[in-house]
Specification:
Elements (H helix, E strand, L loop, with lengths): L7 H13 L1
Length: about 20
């Protein structure tokens, strides 16, 4: 799937990676 919008779950995972630092 190319160029799909970020879902709430994906945004949540992104936040987890930031807090993981």
């Amino acid at each position: 799937m190319l160029g799909h919008t970020f879902t709430r779950f994906e945004r949540y995972l992104l936040q987890m990676s930031v807090f993981s630092r």
